[in-house]
Amino acid sequence: MTKATLLLATLSTLVYPSAAISTAQPGCPSSCGGLTIPYPFGIGTGCFRDGFEITCQMSKITTNKNYVPVPTLAGTTVQVLNLSLGVAEVMVQLPIGWQCYNQSGVEAYYTAEVDFNPKSVYRISNTHNLFVVIGCNSLAYIESQRDSNGLYSYDYYTGCVSFCNDSSSITEGACSGVGCCQVTIPSGLTDNSVIFDGYSHDRILSFSPCSYAFLVDKC
């Protein structure tokens, strides 16, 4: 999982009294898993503004096999890590897309698709986030906002290509096109899925059998 920042697209058009910035609606849960839930976010009927619902669900922590409350964007499995009304941002944990190969070609893959914006509340921040691809001979891109009328199936595409001559050509900690590449993203993304394309892995299976791609906060 990776941390990414979402912008609250409609929050700037709403005006709240100062007390509402850090408190829940009266009679509503004020936190989940240690995270404070301020209005317009809320848990339960009557506790949130349309589009700002948070679900507090029990989830197993694999390290100790205990169940703990985890805040998620309602209708998704996207975990909420932080809510900041002052700067109109939400930090969430997004899945990582991957594709693995064998001698016959693609063996398995996962597109890490997320759609958390049915109410037009959220945008993926282009100022905070990058799209990163890790792996050798790896071409990956994200697609966002399906468009049935345009030349392409989606309004937005962006990605990059990473190559390696051999395992020794990779520099640890570097992400400049050899074993890893990164690219800024356009503004306006409201959903995301990862697509892998292109290159044979026959000659690199011994040191790069899988490719990974994800949106991540620049920190």
TrEMBL record:
<dbReference type="InterPro" id="IPR025287">
    <property type="entry name" value="WAK_GUB"/>
</dbReference>
<dbReference type="GO" id="GO:0016020">
    <property type="term" value="C:membrane"/>
</dbReference>
<dbReference type="Pfam" id="PF13947">
    <property type="entry name" value="GUB_WAK_bind"/>
</dbReference>
<protein>
    <submittedName>
        <fullName>Wall-associated kinase family protein</fullName>
    </submittedName>
</protein>
<keyword id="KW-0808">Transferase</keyword>
<dbReference type="GO" id="GO:0030247">
    <property type="term" value="F:polysaccharide binding"/>
</dbReference>
<dbReference type="GO" id="GO:0016301">
    <property type="term" value="F:kinase activity"/>
</dbReference>
<keyword id="KW-0418">Kinase</keyword>
<feature type="domain" description="Wall-associated receptor kinase galacturonan-binding">
    <location>
        <begin position="28"/>
        <end position="85"/>
    </location>
</feature>
<feature type="signal peptide">
    <location>
        <begin position="1"/>
        <end position="20"/>
    </location>
</feature>
<keyword id="KW-0732">Signal</keyword>
